[in-house]
Amino acid sequence: MKNLHTLYSILDLALVSKDHTLKETYNNALQLAQNAETFGYTRYWLAEHHNSPNIASSATSVLMGYVASGTNTLRIGSGGIMLPNHSPLIIAEQFGTLASIYPNRIDLGLGRAPGTDRETAEAIRSNFMEAAQSFPNELDKIQQYFSKENAFSKVRATVAEGVEVPIYILGSSTDSAHLAAKKGLPYAFASHFATTHLLEAIEIYRQEFKPSNDFKKPYVMAGVNIIIADTDEEAQRLSTSLIRMIVGIFTGKRDFVQPPTDMTNDLKEVLQNPQIHQMLKYSFIGSKATVKAQVKDFIELTKADELIAVANIYDGKEKIRSFELFSEIMKELNPIS
């Protein structure tokens, strides 16, 4: 098989760990991004979520500005902005502003899910369902606001016109694969939690892709969970925080990220639950050697152009260490010729 050069990036939710303040959480996010810059990561994306006590990235574009101000070369983006929650005009203005302050460093990843529960989605935007169904049209509006031609329109996002902000389409099913292909845009699949349709969605996207002015060929990003430590046992211990977090999602009892504990038989049993087992299918947990083999197989399976990794780890330093080891893996799998 021909060697693929696969880029590697970070998707962060600015997770709030138990006994940590929001200020500490945001400082940890910035420290992670600063270290990622030295580790060779391509981009650092923040995800929009609402009404979750353990996720602090709800004001996504504001937090992006904070992280961008403390880094120098790393691309900073949204993974993603949930467009039905927002006016396309306002998003164009926010990201046009960010990209003017930090040129050639800002990405706009767009999704159509609410990133929250139904009641909160309706509190954010009363016509959310209508906006979600018109996602392709809302995307057209975003692109129009960023175009130089929009200078002749009555409604303008003046701070966005002609500003370079690459747009990425996010997906967790096959729907967005068709749209990303039709628009000739990069496609980022949320396989770190939505694993079922990954391969089908990628195949649809690549087969249907139509070149655009900005992208001449398909570009696939795939999400993975990574928890890497010096030993398999230590990584398994760190993963207990993730397991408890997922149990909270399924039971509706969301809470702050809990400190890790020894792996118990009860937690091992949780991992055998069919839904949770499927959800964590592309979760790579273990020592560097263990995870390297798993990542190699995943790249060969998907032929992804880029992996975007999530690490749901309680301690900020252990999270940085995990991403450092992941960067070493990716460099070893992508030797410079």
List the helices and strands and how they pair.
Blueprint: E1 7-12, H1 22-39, E2 43-46, H2 60-69, E3 75-82, H3 88-101, E4 106-111, H4 118-124, H5 128-133, H6 135-146, E5 167-171, H7 175-183, E6 187-189, H8 198-208, E7 220-228, H9 232-251, H10 265-271, H11 274-279, E8 283-286, H12 288-302, E9 306-310, H13 316-333
Parallel strand pairs: 1-2, 1-9, 2-3, 3-4, 4-5, 5-6, 6-7, 7-8, 7-9
Helix pairs in contact: 1-13, 3-6, 7-8, 12-13
What is the compact description of this entry?
With 337 residues, the chain is of the alpha/beta class.
Keyphrases for this structure?
single chain; 337 residues; alpha/beta; eight-stranded parallel beta barrel; 13 helices; 15% strand
The parts where pLDDT drops under 50 for at least 5 residues are none
Instruction: Tell how many strands the DSSP assignment holds.
Output: 9
Radius of gyration, CA atoms, in whole angstroms = 19 Å
Mean model confidence by pLDDT = 95
Q: What is the global morphology?
A: globular
Give the percentage of residues in beta strands: 5-15%
Alpha plus pi helix count: 13
